[in-house]
Amino acid sequence: MKPIESIIEVHMKNRKYDNRRGFTMIEMMIVIVVIGIMAAMAAPSFLNWIPKMRLKNDAREKVNYLRQARSRAIAENSQYGVYFDFNGSRMVYFKDTDSPEWSYYAEGVDSVVGNPISNESTVAYGTCSLMGNTVIFYPNGSASTSGSLELYDVESGNSYTINVLASTGRIRLQ
What we know:
Structural class: alpha+beta
CATH topology: minor pseudopilin epsh fold
Shape: elongated
CATH architecture: 3-Layer(bab) Sandwich
CATH class: Alpha Beta
Helix content: 25-40%
Largest sheet: 5 strands, antiparallel
Number of helices: 2
Strand content: 15-25%
Order of helices and strands: HHEEEEEEEEE
């Protein structure tokens, strides 16, 4: 008969291998390789998504300024407008103080409200059917002209269109 100490020792050795926990190095490497492959597949679509989101953000900013000009015209019972400067790639938010009956932006005469806002570096103005590249909102909420303004991303070619309806002053982003 074996001594009790040797039986316990053999039992403890076998038990040590039965209760293994954790991952082997090979399992960890497989997981890392799978994650790397998935990241490599997702990277191109993510990189294409960034310019589109930058353009959408810039278009929303333009829509918000148009809506702010309309709201302010109604609240203050005065004419406010937005001028899109194609040469400077910026927009100017102004109070129409010079010849309000003509509904255009007179640089240096009309009161500029805040600083002009520049486009993102890759965003440019496309076609514009707004008369004089300007929209002026009247105290009743209507606009001086109906039309649209296209914004596009120079790098990706993506574009958004801002539409203004003269009779109601409604502004939509498409």
